[in-house]
Amino acid sequence: MEQITxxxxxxxxxxxxxxRDFLELQGDIEVIGEAPNGETGVQLARELLxxxxxxxxxxxxxDGVETTRRVKAASxxxxxxxxxxxxxxxxxxxxxKAGAISYLLKDxxxxxxxxxxxxxxxxxxxxxxxxxxxxxxxxxxxxxxxAPVDQLTPREMDVLRLVAKGMSNxxxxxxxxxxxxxxxxxLSNILSKLHLADxxxxxxxxxxxxxxxMNDEQ
Length: 218
Hints:
By secondary structure, the protein is an alpha/beta fold. It has helices at residues 13-23, 38-48, 64-74, 89-98, 110-121, 129-138, 154-164, 169-176, 180-194, 199-208; strands at 4-9, 29-35, 52-55, 79-84, 100-105. The protein has 2 domains: 4-137, 3-Layer(aba) Sandwich (Rossmann fold), CATH 3.40.50; 142-208, Winged helix-like DNA-binding domain superfamily/Winged helix DNA-binding domain (Arc Repressor Mutant, subunit A).
């Protein structure tokens, strides 16, 4: 079983211990380091190159947004999951722009957290429902120059909807009976035609355009 390595960055020792205790029960997740602040977190990320970082936002000294930005610069392949008590707009949007792949609140269940870590390893975003709603509202108004969805081919539309459901390229390929390479080509075309940067923006676009229901099942 492939191990997913995780670095914890949180200034509360009790929180870090609770996370470690749970994650160590998972057969495929290994906590390889802990940091009580952003400065130490960036240093450990550079040394350990973890697959995933669980990032608190409100910490003394360097906050989680700046730490996220520096972790991504130090280890570009590391996926950052924000795990915080705050869903304020002034924290959500900067954290995502800094490079966080997922934004979760600390009221999620342990099982949901483990799912988010595994999803991040597959480069798939997971957003707390409250955060997803905020992002929907932020992008609810049509923007000048926005590319219309009718530029996409029927097959690209299929791929877009499945990306919005959180499927990986491999899962999309299997569902549509195409190769993973072809799936990547379709996704690249979608990003180019719609002027989007990544899978998270594709998912937000699809939800905002009501191309897939918020709670649609795979």
